[in-house]
Amino acid sequence: MPNSARSRTRSRRSGRSHLLIPALLAALLGSAIPAGTALAATPTPPAANSAPAPQPSTTDPAPEPTVSEPTAPEPSAPTEPTPTADPTDTTAPCPALPLAPIGKPGDAVRQVTIESQGTACLTVTVERPGTHRLLIDGSHDTYPRLYAGEDEVTCQDWQYKDAWCDLAAGRYTLKLTNHDWSEARNEVALVPLMATAPGDCPAVPGTGYATAPATGTGAGPLGVVCHSFTAAPGERITTELRRVTSGDSFAWISDATGRRLCVERNQDGSEGCVLPEGTEGHRVYAVVGDQENGSPDAPYTLKVRRLSDPAGCAVVAPSVYGTAPDRAGPATGCKTFTPSVSGRYDVRSVDEEGYRGNVSVYHRDGTYACRSYEGFCTLTAGTAYTVLTDDAVQVFGRTSTEGCVSGVALAVAHRGTFSAPGEVDCLNLPLPQGAHLAVQSDLSTDIKVYDATGAEQCLYTTNLWDATCTLGGTAPYRLTVVDEDPTEGGDGYGLVVHRTDVPSACPAFTAAEFAANPARSVVRTGNGVFAGCLTIPATAHSASELFQIAKGAGGSSAEAVVVDAKGRVSCEIRNYYGTFSVCDLTPGLAHTVLVQGRDLPAETPLTRHDVTSTARGCVTTPAVAVGGPSTGGVPSAPGTFRCHRVTTSAAGDTLHLDARDTNDSVRLMALDAKGDAVCDYFAKGCAVTGSAA
Predict the structure, then answer these.
(1) Domain 413-499 class in CATH
(2) What is the 3-state secondary structure (H, E, C) of 620-651?
(3) What is the mean pLDDT of the chain?
(4) Peptide bond before 22: cis, by omega within 30 degrees of 0?
């Protein structure tokens, strides 16, 4: 608890009629996705047996009206415009829009210029029924509509302007409306996606993870590239298209009719596209945008993989503590493993530097067994699972103790060494159920504690060193150790395990009198020492004491926690923030002070003072009447407390306490005879009553 909050809490509960005893005067010095692409989530495509599109016209469409001068005045603010009706001009027919081949569209692209709030039109003749991809590039506020005669054709993803349209053979009219306040310039292409469409569609080398990716060059934002692959209905297929240079790209899976088979993100959150029954002639189509220099020839690679019943994966075995990560096997991007015991598992990837990452684990059918953000995986013995990564994979059963080290002594430094980056070490703990645990370390490792069932312990502790962990679950217990930052320091680590609900054998921590140079206990670190501890005997403390911690020689950061022999934590202090605290100590029990430092050459001095009626070193200071002289003095060194025992003639007197100096650096904190704070350290004076001495 921060000092000010602690003082306020005690002040509220100290509604007694004692006079302030003692009063402590502290001399402390103050100190966006681009338009025209379909890169966002898309709605589920209509089923193959959905209602047919309106039948196209077999005659030439009526000429498209052109735009005259707008009749509405220009708006005064840039609000969303409302399209105006087009006056009729029968002089210009709609130009023809040829169908573009697969690959580069060539001269099948049409460019249109549209005035503000105006509409342009193009005619399209569809030769064979099937799905066509409409692509629009250029001005962002141009929106298309496709008509078969007077009936509008419903396409997928109109809201993204590029759309998939299932079209019958015949003639259509494409209308493009500019909703911007300025003139729009756009290019348009319509690409048939059926297997019978002209253009190249080379096959990928295979869908196994060991096969090489397909390669190609893009066709720009108005072209569609194609790669065919062999797969059966019901298989779950993933695609990964990577550009060599930066830029936009979007890929999807279709069948021989050109119909898009799966949306970009599955509603159930699963990965990949499960090929529907009755489909054949599967292929991957993609739109690969221009390079930064405007060239459409953007090189890319394409992986098409079967996630269900995957082929070409490297096989890994369950991991053993204290051994290097298994990096054997080819780097195919896929690993499989089979647990020998059912239960909870930690599954992680480990890169070459030793950094461990979360991964998703897949069932044999390609669905998730667990996601990367989940704390653990519940897996079944004898069942094969898949992980998609080129890094090493570690699979640790939560109940496994294979490779764990026994013989860890309490309150004694244990030193270990990682044999390779990413190794996980395990130490068996000699502690029973219900024991209070604290673990000090050199702060280079990440430490977790588990019980015999694999349930993680100490989940709600702030830090393992602060003695707030009580072991629950089922004994025996063990802790795992992982290098927190493999790129820093060496491959060794150190830790100290304490049981805090029993008396300790640490060096004695002697109480100090209030004085200019009070007695201090010093914890020294460096040369492999990173922590220390001190003991307060059961008969050598009061019920309330003021604890201080400071930075000594070396100036290294440190923290300390005070805990009694039954494991109850009294308070925490840090030498960089909250450097002192008034702590309640349990009568009749010894206390331990655990000091967590760094493995750096440094000294950490600690001081404790009795702040009850038996405090030593206080100067008796009688209260004076209002208007009387103040008690003067010379402040001690910064960070040093001085004590005044304030007396008065009657317990009912109200005392007004304050401390002032020319630099406004002196602070006052007042406590009653029991050591409870009645005047806040940060208050500018206070009034107290209840005691004569």
Answers:
(1) mainly beta
(2) EEECCCCCCCCCCCCCCCCCEEEEEEEECCCC
(3) 86
(4) yes
Query: Tokens 């080129």 — which residue?
Result: 390
Bond into 476 cis (ω within 30): yes
Find out whether 651 and 17 touch, Cβ atoms under 8 Å: yes
Kindly state the average pLDDT of the residues 144-155.
94
The residue among 382, 388, 395 whose CA lies nearest residue 344 is 395
Segments making up each domain of the chain, as ranges: 3-22+614-689, 52-193, 214-306, 314-397, 413-499, 521-610
What does the angle CA 354 – CA 408 – CA 568 come to, to the nearest 5 degrees?
A: 100
Tell me yes or no: is domain 521-610 CATH 1.20.1560.10. Answer: no
Averaged pLDDT, 372-398:
96
pTM given for the model: 0.77
CA 550/CA 522 separation, integer angstroms:
10
In angstroms, the CA 525 to CA 552 distance is 11
Instruction: Supply the CATH classification number for the domain 52-193.
Output: 2.60.120.380
Over the stretch 259-296, which tens digit does the pLDDT of each residue have? 999 988 888 889 999 999 999 999 999 999 999 899 99
User: Could you tell me how many residues make up the chain?
Assistant: 693
The closest alpha carbon to 541, from 507, 586, 594, belongs to 586
Give 36-66 as a 3 state SS string.
CCCCCCCCCCCCCCCCCCCCCECCCCCCCCC
Q: Are the CB atoms for 470 and 434 separated by under 8 Å?
A: yes
Q: What share of the chain is helix, strand, coil (3-state, %, to 5)?
A: 5, 40, 60
The dihedral over CA atoms of 547, 551, 552, 555, expressed in degrees to the nearest 10, equals 160
Give the pLDDT confidence of 339-355 residue by residue, as tens digits: 999 999 999 999 999 99
Answer whether 52-193 and 214-306 agree in fold: yes
